[in-house]
Structures are given as structure tokens and as C-alpha cells.
Amino acid sequence: SNGEIKARGALIVLEGLDRSGKTSQSARLLSYLNSLGYPVESWRFPDRDTAVGKMISSYLTNQSQLDDHTIHLLFSANRWEKRSLMEAKLKSGISLIVDRYSYSGVAFSSAKGLDIEWCKAPEVGLLAPDLVMYLNIPPEKAAERGGYGGERYEQLEFQKNVAKYYEMLTDPSWKIINACLPLEDVEKQMKEIVLDCVVSCKKGKPLSHLWL
Ligand code: 2DT
């Protein structure tokens, strides 16, 4: 008999500056895929609920100080501690919409002056996304949206620098989304791209690993 291959879920990553709309769009994409009957979960990094995540959260809220390399490795460890669960979910057919991933890790740390290759190294071997959508918005425009929450990295000058590093990380497979448009228009662009990706993973596109 033909051993039937179980359809796997898609690993979909949303990247972008603070206030680019990632979190709102994650929620919308989650209910969209749900409404079509695809099993899907919404994840985010950092995952502040784990022990490592609590250290990260304390750093981000300026309750603790850490060396730049140390916090970089904690962000990476926070992805590694979720790696096997991530793989299990995908293999069981669940798609994951992930708000930030290794690209945030590299962009934010290298924006502080760390070597970009050094930043990428601990990410090697994590699951590679099937799709990266970059919510593109000029830093000034994102800042105008207000609601920078006062966390460590939420400052215009720093965000401008992060944008430069995101640009260096961009590769031709990324989908660049114009995040200056109204929420509904952004959502419309993203839905189409996401559905394509979920369908191609279901058809058996193999999982791969970072760094690509
Ligand atoms: P949120 O505001 O999205 O919770 O992000 N960051 C994030 C890093 O510096 N490295 C990483 O690996 C990740 C995932 C981006 C909190 C802040 O943490 C930054 C913003």
C-alpha cells in the first residue's frame, strides 16, 4: 500500500519593527486559517512564560542588566527550548504563525554592534520558516503610531538601526508587506500569501533548517 504521508503544517514568521502591526495581523491570520478549517496556533518570541523567557522579560523591562552577548544567547535559547514542540506541532499538521523569530534575534543584536555572523551562529539548526513576511514601515511612521511601551528597544533611533539590519537579512524569498496601508488592506495581502504557503506545505514541501 502507499504509505500515506501526513500533511504537515506551515511555519509562518512575521517580522518587522515595533508597531509595524505584527501582533494584530497574527490574530487576523489565525482566525482566517481557522475559518478555513486549517489547524493553526499563534506563537511569539520571546516566549516570556518559560524560565529563560522570564529573564528576557526582566531585561526588556529594564529590571535587570545583561551583557549584549548574554541576552542574545538567551533569546536564542528561548527558541531552542521550543524547538521540539514546534517540530511536533508542524508534523502533526498544525500550522504556526510566529510573531518574531531568529531574524529579530540577529537584527536587534547586530543593531547594538554585535557581529552579524556571531549573532547567526546559535540559530543554526532551528527550523527554517516556510514563509517570512516582513511588515515594512519607515521607523518614523511606526513611531507616530504611538504606544511604544517604554521597553528597552522602543526608541526611534534604535529602531532606525534595526531597520538597517533587517534590510541586510532580507532575502529574495521574503514577502515584503507594505505595512503603512490600513489594517484591512495589509490583512488582505497577507491572507493570500499565507494560504499559498499552507497549501504547499500540505502537499509535502519538506521542512528545512536555519541558517538559509
Ligand atoms: P515583543 O515586543 O515583540 O515582545 O519583542 N527581540 C526579540 C530581540 O532582541 N531578540 C529576539 O530574538 C527576539 C525574538 C525585539 C520584544 C523585543 O525583543 C526584541 C523586541
From TrEMBL:
- Kindly tell me the pathway this chain contributes to: Pyrimidine metabolism; dTTP biosynthesis
The shown chain, on whole-protein numbering, covers: 67 to 278 of 279
Which Enzyme Commission number(s) are on file for it?
2.7.4.9
A GO CC annotation given for this chain: nucleus
What is the protein's given name? Answer: Thymidylate kinase
Any single biological process term in GO: dUDP biosynthetic process
Q: Does the keyword Zinc apply?
A: no
Q: Does the keyword Kinase apply?
A: yes
Family the UniProt entry places it in: Belongs to the thymidylate kinase family.
At the highest ranks, the source species' classification is: Eukaryota, Viridiplantae, Streptophyta, Embryophyta, Tracheophyta
GO function terms (MF aspect)? ATP binding; dTMP kinase activity; nucleoside diphosphate kinase activity
Q: Which UniProt keywords apply?
A: ATP-binding, Kinase, Nucleotide biosynthesis, Nucleotide-binding, Transferase
Q: Where is the Thymidylate kinase-like domain?
A: 14-189
